[in-house]
Amino acid sequence: MARIADLLAAGRTVSFEFFPPKTDAAQAQLVRTLRELETLEPSFVSVTYGAGGTTRERTHALVVGMLSTTALTPMAHLTCASHSRLDLAEILVRYRRAGLENLLALGGDPSKEPDAAPTELAIAEELVDLARAIGGFSLGVAAHPELHPRSTDRASDRRHLAAKLGKADFAITQFFFRLEDYLRLRDDLDALGCSKPVIAGIMPILSLKSVTRMAQLSGAEVPREVVQRIEAAGDDPEDVRRAGVEVATELCQDLLDEGVPGLHFYTLNQSTATREIAANLDLRPVAA
Ligand code: FAD
Looking at the DSSP assignment, which residues form a beta bridge with residue 265? Predict the structure, then answer.
């Protein structure tokens, strides 16, 4: 096991994100994907947490299973929404007892369920404080190059990000398609005196419809020029994936040229696009 803060200090990281599967078929698909992506020797892999705790046990089982049965370094995501402070502390202590060292501390989105449990910690920064108090974690937080959807203005969004990132070890961004959005985020943080590593989140487009929906939910935009390139590929899913891989490869190359501290791929539990991008870039983690 390794701490992500140490991996980042040693050189550029490459990481993959997965979600906990719901069905046996989805579990089998994930096992295949993990086996295929493990050969790329990722620096770490991360496992998402369902809004409001809907995957509490499944996220725990997948992360702890990775710890005990693979050579991968896992990071668990955890969100504050619909949890008490005690609930969150219990989850964190259980992870530490299992030997987990890496956590992505998130605010999460408020539940729309009328009978959802109340939320005690309002923002990710408070979860960073709680995890620090428990101790032993290398801590990441989320960053939003195109601003968080609930942020009213850029200045306050960046101020809040700098405050939580100042207490954490690194950030991972929401996916984005324009290099300028990442560079502006980095410059804004620099201006606020925050120089912690900001890993770039990369979403290879597999379907224009689904990526546009995800972008709308997360406050990101699929730029017109990207939409046009994907549309020009036609309707065959293979051609769409090829065009999506081309777009993502170019963005990753630009980010690497800019000295990005890490690339984090939103795999959607599939390996083909991520493997193709990694092959195009001859991508491996770089340890100094
Ligand atoms: P927070 O830091 O909690 O901020 C939320 C809002 O509050 C922002 O607008 C911020 O500017 C504002 N704010 C912060 N501090 C203050 C303050 N002191 N005063 C006033 N306002 C403040 N969601 C999931 O449900 N599960 C996941 O596994 C998951 N993984 C993610 C991974 C990554 C890399 C990213 C980028 C996002 C992920 N999300 C996940 C989505 C995330 O939970 C949502 O973006 C959520 O709406 C906010 O959480 P946050 O940690 O990004 O923001």
Answer: 16, 202
Domain boundaries, the chain: 4-281
Q: What is the identity of the amino acid at 177?
A: F
Enumerate residues 6+ apart whose C-beta is below 8 A from 203. 175, 211, 214, 248, 266
CA of 191 to the centre of ligand 1 (A): 21
41 is catalytic: no
For 4-281, the fitting CATH number among 3.20.20.220, 2.30.130.10, 3.20.20.140, 3.40.50.2020 is: 3.20.20.220
What confidence tier does 132 reach under pLDDT thresholds 50, 70, 90?
very high
The span from the CA of 187 to the CA of 93, in Å, is: 36
* Contact of 273 with 241, CB cutoff 8 Å: yes
Residue nearest to atom 41 of ligand 1 (CA): 108
Residue bearing tokens 């983690």: 285
Question: Structure pTM?
Answer: 0.97
Pocket of ligand 1 (CB under 6 A): 48-49, 51, 77, 79, 104, 106-109, 123-125, 142, 148, 150-151, 157, 160, 164, 172, 174, 201
pLDDT in tens, 174-197: 999 999 999 999 999 999 999 999
- Give the chain's end-to-end CA distance (angstroms, integer): 18
pLDDT at 113: 84
Pick from 148, 194, 264 the residue to mutate for probing ligand 1's pocket: most ligand atoms within 8 Å of its CB: 148
Helical segments of the chain, H only: 4-10, 24-38, 56-69, 85-98, 124-134, 154-167, 179-191, 208-218, 224-232, 237-257, 272-281
